[in-house]
Amino acid sequence: MSDDLGAAFEAARYRVFINDDSHVLAIGALCPQPIATWMSRHASGQCAWLVTAHNPNAEQIDAERNRARHALLRAWATRRAGGWLETVNEDPDNHWPDEPGVLAIGIDEGEVRAQARRFGQAAIVAVPAQADVTLVWL
Length: 138
Description:
The protein is of the alpha+beta class. Helix content is about 35%, strand content about 30%. The protein is globular, with a radius of gyration of 14 Å.
């Protein structure tokens, strides 16, 4: 992993859509209360996982393939998660395209890691209800 890639992941805004609103997760900050409340209602797990399927291996691919990959990610979340929300990863400097994803709860970390690897991702975001949001490198 390059220093640039690490810095980009750390600086990204991880926007989560819930109840006709959105909240931004920041690496190293607490989970916003509306998301923590949603987490407590949807699964017994104490941690949710933010995953995208877009742009494998940190290389931009065409929009059609990204949409197809996102559909597969959503299908996986629907089958396996206790609940999930739509997300979008945003580059605050607008040098990288937005990447839709999901915030899924009720899935074991090992399964989430394996799924993210299948999608060619470098990292996932751990979102504990009562602790700081962290980046988990794969």
